[in-house]
Structure formats: C-alpha cells, structure tokens
Write the structure tokens for this entry.
Amino acid sequence: MELIKNLGIKDTGKTAGIISYFTIVGWLFAYFAFHQNKKTDVGSYQLRQTLLLHIVSMAVIFGLPFILGTIWTSDGVFSLSYFMRLLEFAFFVLWILGLIGAINGEKKSIPIVGERAQILFSNI
C-alpha cells in the first residue's frame, strides 16, 4: 500500500477487486491489505461478489459430487464427471466476467451471484 502511495498512484479499489478474484487466499489478502483501511465503492462491490462466487463455487464443486456420487448411475456422456466439468466451465465464465469488470473498475454485477452478494455481504 505504501508503494502505491509513494508512486503517486490513486487507488480506486481496482487493486483489491482484481486480487480478490484469485482464490480465497487472494480475497483475504485483498481485504486485509488493500480494503480494510481504505474502503472504496468499487473495492467493496467486487469483494462482495468474489466472496459469494468463491463460496458457491467451492460448495458446488466439492459438495455436489459427494451428494450425487452415490445416486448418479449414468455413464458416458451423461456421467457425473461431464456434468461437473460443465459446472466448472460455467463458474470459470462467471469468474472471467467478474474479473473483466474489476479490471475496468466497474461495478458490473456477475450473473446469478452478483446481486445476491450485494445483499448478503452489505457490511463489507
């Protein structure tokens, strides 16, 4: 943070928003290193979205196979493995859309989770 100040770069929250997209560890780093002491609208908006995106994606990617693994009996094209790859791709697309918004410094909502995140985590 001091380096940004010393270089004369104005932090508008884009840095926290961009870093928060790179795993939950990146989210924690962005929150505590960049956002906690200097809250911005864009940073708060992106942090809320990425937190819910990380939570939902981890719950679905790790929890769904555990729950459906015993009852999903199809093989071939309709296997659980293909279904999970499709879900992972969908989360990747949502991640890319959110990251593009963070890079541009926009308060652009991620489809499906964006608006819900703003309500659930309004205190961030």
Notes: The chain has a mean pLDDT of 84. The chain has six helices and no strands.
